């Protein structure tokens, strides 16, 4: 089953908790709605991990999601984290069986002419288009790429992303912060990419601020 790829939408995703419950009860149209909502972001995530094999890995992930759906408990945010975890496990299995490294994306210079003009991370990512944006994120070290994808593209909070990756929330915030700063620096190498780079730096600053606040709260609790 193929879903047409839409531009990246970095705004709040719809809450489909009721739709998930309907799908668990056997409503095929509800399951299709869940699939159409999640499949694009799963594909973007998997392309960074397994490259051209993303379709096959996504199919395996959805087979498991459909098989295990009845046992899921939680809200929509937890469901997204659960689904991404399954997709990541299938991707890691695929990489181990293929005995190869994750795909290497095109050089960042390829995207220098594609950047936007608005001073926001949403404009920066949406303006380069889906394939270019994901390939650009794929130039990062994998821990940073996954953190940026889960936090910015999939839209998971740091705690949920940490559960997907098997890391503490603070480590995810740090990786996302470093990844976003690195993307901003890469884009900033082009004079025409200044606005996009500024937007990415703003997002990195927000991510870094969240990390600092979380660390301060942890220290107060000690």
Describe this structure in words.
The protein is mostly helical and 222 residues long. The protein has two domains: 17-98, Rna Polymerase Sigma Factor, Chain: A; 108-221, Orthogonal Bundle (Arc Repressor Mutant, subunit A). The protein is 68% helix and 0% strand. It has helices at residues 17-24, 28-50, 54-68, 76-98, 121-127, 130-137, 142-153, 158-165, 169-188, 194-221. It starts with 16 loop residues before the first helix and ends with a helix. Residues 1-12, 104-125 and 190-199 have low confidence and may be disordered.
Quick tags:
222 residues; mainly alpha; Rna Polymerase Sigma Factor, Chain: A; Arc Repressor Mutant, subunit A; 2 domains; 0% strand; globular
Give the topology, please.
Blueprint lengths: L16 H8 L3 H23 L3 H15 L7 H23 L22 H7 L2 H8 L4 H12 L4 H8 L3 H20 L5 H28 L1
GO cellular component, one term: DNA-directed RNA polymerase complex
Keywords: DNA-directed RNA polymerase, Sigma factor, Transcription, Transcription regulation
Organism: Phytohabitans rumicis
């Amino acid at each position: 089953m193929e879903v047409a790829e839409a531009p990246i939408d970095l705004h709040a995703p719809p809450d489909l908790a009721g739709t998930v419950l309907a799908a668990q009860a056997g409503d095929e149209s509800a399951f299709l709605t869940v699939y159409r909502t999640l499949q694009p972001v799963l594909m973007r995530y998997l392309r960074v991990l397994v490259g051209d094999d993303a379709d096959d890995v996504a199919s395996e992930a959805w087979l498991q999601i459909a098989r295990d759906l009845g046992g899921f408990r939680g809200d929509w945010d937890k469901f997204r984290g659960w689904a991404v975890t399954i997709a990541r496990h299938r991707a890691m299995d695929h990489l181990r069986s293929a005995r190869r490294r994750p795909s290497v994306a095109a050089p960042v210079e390829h995207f220098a002419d594609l950047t936007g003009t608005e001073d926001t991370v949403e404009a920066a990512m949406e303006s380069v288009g889906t394939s270019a944006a994901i390939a650009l994120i794929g130039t990062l070290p994998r821990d940073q790429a996954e953190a940026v994808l889960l936090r910015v593209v999939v839209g998971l909070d740091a705690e949920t992303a940490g559960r997907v990756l098997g890391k503490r929330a603070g480590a995810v915030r740090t990786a996302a912060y470093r990844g976003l700063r690195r993307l901003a620096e890469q884009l900033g190498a082009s004079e025409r990419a200044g606005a996009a780079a500024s937007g990415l730096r703003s997002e990195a600053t927000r991510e870094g601020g969240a990390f600092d606040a979380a660390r301060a709260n942890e220290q107060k609790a000690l």
